[in-house]
Amino acid sequence: MWDEILGLYRSTIRMMTPVLLASLGGLITFHAGILNVAIEGLMLIGAFSAVCFSYVFANAGIGILGAVIFSVALSILYSFFVTTLRANNFAIGFSLNIFVSSLTLYLTRILFRGENAFNSPNIKAIPELSLKLGNKFLEKIFSGFSILVYFSIILTILTSYLIFKTPFGLRLRAVGQNEVASKTAGVNASMIQYMASILCGILCGLAGAQLSISNVRLFSRDMTGGRGFIALAIILIARGKPSFILIMSLIFGFLDSLSIKLQSGKVAPQFSLMIPYIISILVLMFAVIYKHFKCTE
Fold first, then answer.
1. Which of 14, 15, 131, 209 is least surrounded, with the fewest CB atoms within 10 Å of its CB?
2. Is residue 150 included in any domain, yes or no?
3. Is 267 within the bounds of a domain?
4. Is residue 168, in this structure, part of any structural domain at all?
5. CA 190, CA 208: separation in Å to the nearest integer?
């Protein structure tokens, strides 16, 4: 019984991390006045790039770097359409998601001669930290996770500090709340939004790398599985607060892990895979209803 609980806990932490990193990235653009619908595509290109670079160079660090570079490049492209050209945010976001989904599938089939996935023992995984805490129980709880798992917790604190305690964060929130007033005050709103998009690309690249060369060691078609949209839901539910984002990501990680666990039982796999997304939709729906009734009081 204890082993099953421990296994569920460790799986929860692993499943939480990509969603947490992506949510933190989307949170930064959210405060800049951009609801980043392209998070799904940013994560997917990051996951694909991480596998490619990790395989070719036999180095997980280069895999992470490749994921970040390509995710940032796509994020800048998204920001160019949304910030500079003033194109419709949702139209561009969904277009880029579809483009990345098709591109990564095409490149997987061309580069690795696979159908819809690529797997190889030559793909190097992100190293796991082995902490010596002098207690076996504590070591099972806190040790043996990838570097990005620990880094994501640190990034949650740093993101909160960046948004709410720095001059950049003040300008970021000012642009998000009233872009015209910010420009009148001398703030370069476009530059702030581009910087927010770059930071979002970095975090989404890390999320994709965690998903493809840590949680598993492969790339498969659309392996993000809607986690980018879950990240969007988490941002809206948390109302822009990093601490709430951490909690909501943890809940999603638990539900995601539970759905995988239920697949080994008598529950239909199609139903168990729906659980995290159904719960997220319900929570978002109740959050919107609660906000509506609170505003009408």
1. 131
2. yes
3. no
4. yes
5. 27
Strands 218-220 and 117-119: antiparallel
Residue 23's contacts (CB-CB under 8 Å, 6 or more residues apart) are: 231, 234, 235, 238, 245, 248, 249
CA dist 294 and 272 (Å) reads 34
Which distant-in-sequence residues (6+ apart) come within 8 Å of 268 by Cβ?
Answer: none
Look up the domain containing 67 and give its range: 18-226
Q: Which two tokens stand for residue 148?
A: 């990005």
Is 54 part of a structural domain of the chain? yes
Tokens (6 digits) for 54: 């990790």
**Contact by Cβ (8 Å): 220, 47:** no
- pTM of structure: 0.91
Angle at 149 between CA 173 and CA 2, to 5 degrees: 130
- Total number of domains constituting the chain: 1
Rg over alpha carbons for the chain, rounded to the nearest Å, is 19
